[in-house]
Amino acid sequence: MLGAVLALLVGCGSETAETAETDEEATGAATAAAWTLAAPIRIDGVHTADGGRSLVVDAKVPDGARDCVRGLRGELDTVEHGTVYAKVTYETRSLDQDSGCTGTRRVKATVKLGEPLGSRRVMVNSMDVYTPVGATPPALRQCGENGCDPTPPRCTSSSYQQAVNDTDIPKHTSWEERGCDDTWLVLDLSTRMGPACGDAGDGCSSSGVSQRWFYRAESSGWRPVATNSDAGCAGIHKILPELPERLCASLLRLDRG
Description:
Blueprint (H helix, E strand, L loop, with lengths): L1 H33 L1 E3 L3 E8 L4 E10 L5 E12 L2 E10 L10 E10 L8 E4 L3 E4 L9 E2 L14 H9 L8 E7 L3 E10 L13 E12 L2 E7 L6 H4 L20
Parallel strand pairs: 5-7
Antiparallel strand pairs: 1-5, 2-3, 3-6, 4-5, 7-8, 8-9, 10-11, 11-12, 12-13
């Protein structure tokens, strides 16, 4: 009888250990599966190091109470047509809703180039572009929507479009030139509002919002400096008294929509 009881206890112990081991393996597999390869949430800047032979990428990554990032890597992808293509990656748990990786932190990833960067541009993760031209070393300058070298301000359609792109207005805004010289530009900008629909004849109604913007020429392009919808010069001269009268005297009052 005693032997039977011992056998039963040994059997129970063996079964419990096996069950615990199985549960541990399942938990480990789930933990391993939670790590996912990802790119930084945002690139905050790039500067050179080691005499220009390395790039240091400042990036924002997930953070939380547990380990949220591992295996941070900066790699040189390729160099083509005067551009250095770099890649920054890491593994993260942040895609797991129960990971607690709800915060962010800044990290630095180093990319070895093997030779000085020189005047070449840098593209990180096929998105953000930086250039040493016009920057204060060792920092690189981030390029904008108009590229790394915006065209100087001119009285041309392409220059007007660049001015619109640099104005804090909704995308897909149309423009109409009202006056331009070597220093000043006046544009009427119109943004269509309401639901997307077809022609008015199809029972579709929509409205638009219009604004008149005034720009001053700078080395990087047209810079928006004021907005005013009044007729003539009286209204805008309260804000920009230096604006030439020839550019505002014939302006009609702008209907804002």
